[in-house]
Structure formats: structure tokens, C-alpha cells
Structure of Peptide/nickel transport system ATP-binding protein:
Amino acid sequence: MSANDKPLLSVDGLQTSFYTEEGEVKAVNDVSYQIDRGERFAVVGESGAGKSVTSLSLMRLIDDPGRIKGGDVTFRSPSAVATLARKFPEGVATENSSGYIHVAELRAESGSVGDDPGATVRDRPKEVATELDDGSLHVEAGHVDVLDAPAEAMQELRGAEIAMIFQDPHTALNPVYTVGEQIAEAIRKHLDMGEKAARERAIDMLDRVGIPDPAERYSDYPHEFSGGMQQRAVIAIALSCDPSLIVADEPTTALDVTIEAQILDLLKDLSDDEDVAIQLITHDLGVVAELCDSVMVMYAGKPVERSSVEELYYDPKHPYTVGLMSSIPRIGDDRDRLETVPGTMPDLVQLPSGCSFHPRCPYAEDACIQHEPPLVDTETGEPIEEPDSDIHTAACLEYTGDLQDGVDFDVQIREDAAADGGESV
């Protein structure tokens, strides 16, 4: 795999806990996944599953009493590497090729440092592609270790390279500043533009997200916008500096269905047109089906299933996912009552032994109480070395051969599945 073929974002063994009087709340417990450039990746689960804390962790926005305990978050954006290498020459941005090679050292060794835009790069390490633009060295293959980066570097990364759309636009927007000024502020900080240029770009952003009369609405305050327009303004802030990754935390929760459809179409178009990756945090499986390519289901701080969206909807493998899918109402549904997942999310201070879902699982056996299931390939039963949405994985002892009776799913995911050539499970 070449350096540029590697995922845009890799999360490996992420652990985040909150320390309370009751004990350690293991909100995120050994979470791993990856997102490719332009991919739309969903993280779904009930409230308390760890979805939002996972996203806040990769943004380094965990406040006391929370703490990121361990894991690695690797971000591979050429522009991020180039910017951080220029502003933080102590090795914040590195390239992993036959060992760690500091970008600062690469610049010095290549003889490319200086004002001469015609300087050539000599003796560059294997798989490191570089070019000069106005005298600045740009590295096309590199990475940033997000959890190890200093706070100043994270301030450069947030907003510019990794942007976040928060759940509630009413609290995301400052009521005492105009909407346009809040967009322009991010532009001035990260793109180093003057007042006039930042204003013009902010107006362009408002127009880009579909706000009518953007030049006039630039000077309006948040309370003068409707809920849907406020959410569009928040998206405009997120897009204003051309990020490589957008983290969208329940971006349509407070919107009516018409505005929700418009926001989803907007995000989809932006992802397609700009090759922007999206990490969507949601409990709404309908939104996932509408927007995303791949999905990870979380339960009690851990991933329990990961696959493409299509596979998850047609052939869910984990009992928890099956329960979620069974609870979706369908047009023409003749059931008297919707199915539910019995019980509630376990106490994250004192998790159940073995599989954390076993107290609610209709297929639980003694082995489920005694052994914690690993996330395995559902076809082979083998643990996977790296997260891969092309491989359908689930954390259930059914796929390791450790259950005596096995599981027998009987849930029809779509009324028209057979007519479309799919299968009901």
C-alpha cells in the first residue's frame, strides 16, 4: 500500500474514561476504525453507547473529569502535514517509511529550505512525495499523531482540517455575534485572510449551503435564522476552511423531516463534490441509509459490528444490531407493536462480565457470561488485524464457534428485499 492509499483517519484502541465519585466510567473502551478520503462513515447506537465521546476524543475536546487513557489517532492529510511541519518543526508531523522520519529533518536534508521556489528536493526518503509551491515544501505522504500533538497544533488542526458540526445549532452559534462574523473568524484564523477577503468567503459559504440573500444575511444574528438555516450556518462554519474530515454529531436531530432531507442532500453533495470525508454520529438508522457508505455499531463503549451500510441493513450479524433493525417501523407494517431491545444500557462503571450485551441478549449462553467476544470476520471467525469496512465484522461468540445452540435471526429488514433481489434475514 502506498502512502497516499492509506486511510485519511485511523483510530486504534482508543480509550476514554470519566472519573466520578462512583468510579471510572469507561465511555470509550478500545475503539478502532478507519475512514478513507471521501468516505461517509456512520457511528450508531443508543444514548450512552460512546458515540459522541469517541468523536470528541479524536478532536481532543475531552474536559475534566474525562481523560483520554490510550490509543492512537492518526490523521493523514497532505495540507495538515505541510502546515504543521512548517509551524511546528519539532516533529509534530511525520512520515512512517522505514522508521519515523521527521518532516523538519526531511526539509533540512533535502536542501529545499529557503526562498528559492526553484529549489529541488534531493535524497528524499522512499514513498515521500514532495513539491515546492512559492518556496514552501508540501508533503503529500505523511501523518499527524493527533493524541500526541501539542495543544497549539490541535488548534491549527481543528476547524481547518477536522471540522465538527455540533448537535444543537442554538448552542453552537454565539448569540452576540452575527452569523457572518462567526464564519469569517474561522477563515481569518486558519486561512490567514484579511477582513475583506474573509467577508467575501463567508458570504460565499452562506450561498454554498443554500442560504438565500447571503450578503444580507451575513449581518443577521443567530436568532434571526430558522432552525434549519442555523444548522446550515453551522455547516458553513465547518466548511469554511476546506476541511478533509467533517465530524457531524446528530446534525439533523432538532430538524423537521423536510429540513432534514435538505441537510442530508447538502452533506452528500459536499462529500461528492469536494471529496470530504464525513463521520456521522447518530441513532437514526434512516439517516445512515440515506447518507453513509459504511457503519460501526457501538454498545457500552465498544464496537459490536462494522460493515458496509448495505450489508448491515440486509444481513445484520450481531444480536444488538438485529434488535435495532427490528425496531424500525416500515410502511405497510402489520405488527401491532414495534419490537424493542429489552433492558437498558449497562452501568459503564461496572460492566457485566463477558459480553456486555448478554443481560439483554435473547441468545445468551453461559459462554457469553464467561468470555468477552472479540471483533471477528463473520465469515471466517478470525480476528482482524486492521479495521476494514469491506470486511463484515461482529463481536459475538456465534462467529468464533463458542456457542452451543447458536443464534437464529428472523427479522425482515425491508418489505421489498426479495423483490429487489436481496434477502430477508
Remarks:
- The longest strand covers residues 23-35.
- The longest helix spans residues 257-274.
